[in-house]
TrEMBL record:
Name of protein: Fumarylacetoacetate hydrolase family protein
A GO MF label: acetylpyruvate hydrolase activity
Source organism, top-level taxon: Bacteria
Fumarylacetoacetase-like C-terminal domain residues: 27-226
Keywords: Hydrolase, Metal-binding
SUPFAM superfamilies found in the cross-reference section: FAH (SSF56529)
Statement: the UniProt record of this protein carries the keyword Metal-binding: yes
Pfam family, one: FAA_hydrolase
Signal sequence range: none
InterPro entries per the UniProt record, alphabetical: Fumarylacetoacetase-like_C, Fumarylacetoacetase_C_sf
């Protein structure tokens, strides 16, 4: 018999392209990790210390749809490379960090920009703008043994066929190994952790009925419809 006093919550998983499911433990997101995006958001693009916020594991969604959330009239797309870990630790050296990576996926950090802006002005946390239900559409994971480590390659996002976002993974201010190392100084990383690596410039609003098509060279595409 179980000692749980309520039914055990479901484990969030991400499908793996070659088969199986990846169980999610935590979701870390880095802010302003492309210089051009930092500029468009009104910030200095110089390499400053990285900062992170978190989404909830069950914000990840692989259904190919994004339900327009309540209490907002300004939801933005942010196309991102996501890194998933097969192991963790603390104080991980940069030169060892990529050994922890299981694979990579395409993802979207959907943002209630109006609510995020209100929180910024008030000096309050961003969760209401970032960590709402199904706010992180994600594609299948491509494992390292099949795609290698991605340090360059085009990343794009189209909305209804119109190019909105365009960049290259080599433009990341903080590289994957550096993000893992930095996070491990402040958190104990572990298998199942997910890191969303930031978005290039061109973020903008979507409305119901829009179709977002994201591509990363070497990882294929992700199509998500706003419902």
């Amino acid at each position: 018999m179980s000692d749980f006093v309520i039914p055990l919550p479901a484990v969030t998983t991400i499908p793996v392209a070659s088969g199986g499911s990846f169980p999610v433990r935590r979701v870390y997101c880095i802010g302003r990790n492309y210089a051009a995006h930092a500029i468009e958001m009104g910030h200095d693009p110089d390499r400053e210390a990285p900062f992170f916020f978190q989404k909830n594991p069950n914000n990840l969604d692989s259904t190919g749809t994004f339900p327009y959330p309540p209490h907002t009239s300004d939801v933005h797309h942010e196309a991102e490379l996501t890194v998933v870990l097969k192991a963790g630790g603390t104080n991980i050296a940069v030169e060892n960090a990529l050994d922890l990576v299981y694979g990579y996926a395409l993802s979207l950090d959907m943002t209630r920009r109006d609510l995020q802006g209100e929180m910024k002005k008030a000096g309050r946390p961003w969760e209401i703008g970032k960590a709402f239900e199904r706010s992180a559409p994600i594609g299948p994971i491509h494992i390292v043994s099949e795609v290698g480590h991605l340090d360059s390659g085009a990343i794009t996002l189209k909305v209804n066929g119109e190019l909105r976002q365009q960049g290259d993974l080599n433009q990341l201010i903080w590289k994957t190994s550096e993000m893992i190392s930095y996070l491990s100084e402040y958190f104990e990383l572990a298998a199942g952790d997910v890191i969303m690596t930031g978005t290039p410039s061109g973020v903008g609003p979507v409305v119901k009925g829009d179709v977002m098509e994201m591509e990363i060279a070497g990882l294929g595409s992700l199509t998500v419809t706003v419902t």
